[in-house]
Amino acid sequence: GRGAPAEMGGSGSTGKEVRAVVVGMPKAGSKALASYITTGQFPESAFETAAATEWQKIRRTFEELDLHVLGAGSAQYLWAKHVPSAQALVFVVDGSEDIDTARVAKMFAAVVDGGLPEGVPITVVLNKADLVEDPAKGEERKGIAAAAIGAACGAVRQCRVLTASARTGDGVDEVVRVICGNGLTF
Description:
alpha/beta; Rossmann fold; disordered N terminus; GTPase activity; Signal recognition particle receptor subunit beta
């Protein structure tokens, strides 16, 4: 359970798991990102996207854990249901357009106040990186998003800001590694 020392060696079936809830701004692609994490591809149908709103599990052999992913998107009724059991939170912002800091901060605060357990690491993902022509613009938006969320995040939580594309898969591996790596520190 929590806080138990990690066993050295072993058969690899340590029973470790990380439950990651993926939420985000409307139309930022959080369900698509959740889907890509578990299937390795962009969801081409509404059916595939809808499947992401149920818990999906992938085995991470490198970290020796099961990663359970649920894409709650911007549906606040799903946040209320799943955020309190999250061991990792992914907050998705549309990185292809200018960041509306007030809206992002407000929505982010709503997630955190919606029962996110203390100490749960947060990974902020600027999705739709494939639509960003100018890398400098992408970096700038990353900084703006980090600042908008930093206030709500405070010093209490670990926050990482990454860029990814649920369409091309760019950056998704890093997102998964961060989620799993954070999960190991519990």
